[in-house]
Automatic annotation (TrEMBL):
It comes from Plakobranchus ocellatus. GO terms for molecular function: nucleic acid binding. PANTHER family: MARINER MOS1 TRANSPOSASE-LIKE PROTEIN. It comes from the Eukaryota. This is Mariner mos1 transposase. It holds the Pfam family Transposase_1.
C-alpha cells in the first residue's frame, strides 16, 4: 500500500507500506509523523499556518488515536462525505495517470516497482499537483449541488 501526500508544489511524502503489513491507526499516525517532518524539511514555515488534510473516512483515519494526533498538532480535516472517493485527489487525479504510466510494465521485485514509482513521482511536472488540488473546489461544489451524491456519474 502506498500513501501519497502532496501540496500544490509537488509530492511531500511517498510512503510505501510493506505488503505484509496492514494499515491501522498507529501506522497511520506514524505516517502522519513522517509527513509532519517532511513538511518541516521541505516546506519550511508551512507548519506555522493551518494544515488542512484531506483523507477519507477509513477506520485508521477516523480512529480515536488519529483524532488525538490531529488535535494535538492542530491539523484541520477537510470533511469527506461518505462513499465519495471521487473527491479524493488520488482517486480522480493521480491513479489514472499512474496506471497509464505503469501500463504493461512488469517488475521482477517489489523494489523495482518502488523504484519506478519514486522515479515517476520525481519526474512529474509541478503543475500536475496544482491542477489536482485546484480542481477540488469545483468537485466539492458539484458534490454540494448533488446533495452529497457522486460527482462523476
Amino acid at each position: 500500500m502506498a500513501t501519497v501526500f502532496w501540496d500544490a508544489k509537488g509530492v511531500i511524502l511517498l510512503d510505501i507500506l510493506p505488503q505484509d503489513l496492514g494499515v491501522n491507526a498507529a501506522r497511520y499516525c506514524s505516517t502522519l509523523d513522517r509527513l509532519k517532518e517532511a513538511i518541516r524539511r521541505k516546506r519550511p514555515g508551512l507548519l506555522r499556518w493551518d494544515v488542512v488534510l484531506q483523507h477519507d473516512n477509513a477506520t485508521p483515519h477516523s480512529a480515536n488515536l488519529t483524532q488525538q494526533w490531529l488535535q494535538r498538532y492542530g491539523w484541520e480535516i477537510l470533511p469527506h462525505p461518505a462513499h465519495s472517493p471521487d473527491l479524493a485527489p488520488s482517486d480522480f487525479h493521480l491513479f489514472g495517470p499512474l496506471k497509464r504510466h505503469l501500463g504493461d510494465m512488469a517488475f521482477e521485485t517489489e523494489d523495482d516497482l518502488i523504484s519506478e514509482l519514486r522515479n515517476w513521482f520525481d519526474n512529474l511536472d509541478v503543475d500536475f499537483f496544482r491542477v489536482g488540488i485546484n480542481s477540488l473546489l469545483s468537485r466539492w461544489q458539484k458534490c454540494i449541488d448533488l446533495y452529497g451524491d457522486y460527482v462523476e456519474k
